[in-house]
Write a structure and sequence with these properties.
By secondary structure, this protein is of the alpha/beta class. It contains eleven helices and ten strands.
């Protein structure tokens, strides 16, 4: 019975995974998915899946085809009460349930759909950490490490060999000699560290809609990189004509105005990387989000010089996502293409609206051939 339940549960999860995969773009583009993040899980609304089941009448001796009645008489429990509340209408309602999905499972679905390659380390950190790895089975140990499946297996083998196993009453009671426990050993592993350096233009042309798109994209970039590396740090820079480092909440919620000097953000980013993150010990991912508006052509050239000489040599890759805004010129993306036509470390992506979040994840984390 337990095996049958496990099979049914696995089949149900596959049905739900298929539903999520079919509507993946719709789920990813909505910011509510981020707001429903729990401890390693996300809540995803999926269409309610109804399973056939028997319904029995509460009346003794009654039921369909029994007792008095005439054609067209509603049956008890036939749904009359469901339509009494609320306004009348002639359309079926939308029914959905919140399905709790492991965040790793959602990332697996995205990886399968986008065919994302594995990220490559640019070297190992010099930091060593110790961790316990469960590598075998032994006869002694604490109850917290008891291996119940192996213990039951040993008890079953003992009963079978002694001839005391009764298939009509399959009761197995382990004794102390049957107990098996997980064993572990402490191993040393190098810690692979990564830092994500987020930069965002918060000048007057970047509105709330643009920031929400950036927040959704940043959430998934964070999630993928945190799964890849044991230690991930995130740093945040906002800029208009000047740049400053802020916390995560300020990064996504601040309201600014004024002009834009992209070089100010790149200069501060280069200082942070040089001071806090040696390239030999860290995997470095700077990401910049803007509407492509800059103060002048001269400042664009200064920003490009900092990017070429200081940021790119230290980074695994550099990503620039341009969010379309009705108020921005959108020139910076084209200027980067002209200044760095063959630079493999630079990844460029254009976010026209929320629909572009999923393709942008592919741009940032996939191979160039997949874009």
């Amino acid at each position: 019975m337990s095996l049958r339940i496990d099979q049914d549960h696995a089949r149900f999860r596959e049905i739900v995974r298929g539903t999520i995969r079919e509507n993946l773009k719709d789920y990813i583009r909505h910011e509510y998915l981020i707001g429903r993040e729990g401890k390693g899980t996300v809540q995803i609304p999926v269409p309610r899946i109804e399973f056939p089941r028997f319904r029995f009448s509460d009346e003794e001796g009654g039921g369909v085809g029994q007792g008095e009645g005439a054609p067209g008489t509603p049956l008890p429990g036939d749904g009359e009460e469901d339509g009494q509340a609320g306004e009348a209408g002639d359309q079926a309602g939308e029914h959905a349930l919140d399905f709790e999905l492991e965040l790793d499972e959602l990332l697996d679905i995205i990886e399968e759909e986008l065919e994302l390659p594995r990220l490559e380390d640019r070297g190992h950190a010099k930091i060593i950490t110790q961790r316990d790895r469960y590598t075998g089975i032994r006869r002694v140990g604490p109850n917290s490490l008891r291996h119940f499946k192996r213990t039951f297996s040993e008890a079953l083998k003992r009963n079978l060999s002694a001839g005391s196993y009764d298939p009509k009453k399959p009761i197995i009671v382990p004794i102390r000699d049957d107990f098996r426990f997980r064993s572990y050993k402490t191993v040393e592993e190098p810690v692979r560290n990564a830092v994500i350096l987020y930069m965002m233009d918060v000048s007057g042309s970047m509105g709330d809609e643009q920031k929400e798109i950036v927040r959704t994209l940043s959430f998934f970039l964070d999630a993928f990189l945190k799964r890849r590396y044991q230690g991930v740090e995130s740093r945040f820079i906002i800029h208009d004509a000047v740049a400053k480092e802020v916390d995560r909440e300020t990064f996504f919620r601040t309201r600014e105005s004024g002009g834009t000097m992209i070089s100010s953000a790149y200069r501060l980013a280069a200082e942070i990387l040089d001071r806090d993150y040696p390239a030999s010990e860290w995997n470095i991912y700077p990401y910049h989000f803007s509407d492509g508006d800059n103060w002048s052509k001269e400042d664009t050239l200064v920003a490009a010089s900092i990017l070429r000489d200081k940021i790119l040599p230290a980074s695994n890759s550099f990503g620039y996502a341009q969010v379309i805004s009705p108020y921005g010129s959108g020139l910076f993306l084209g200027e980067l293409k002209q200044l760095f036509p063959d630079e493999p470390k630079i990844i460029l992506s254009e976010l026209r609206d929320r629909e572009a979040v999923l393709p942008s994840i592919r741009d940032f984390l996939g191979s160039r051939s997949a874009s």
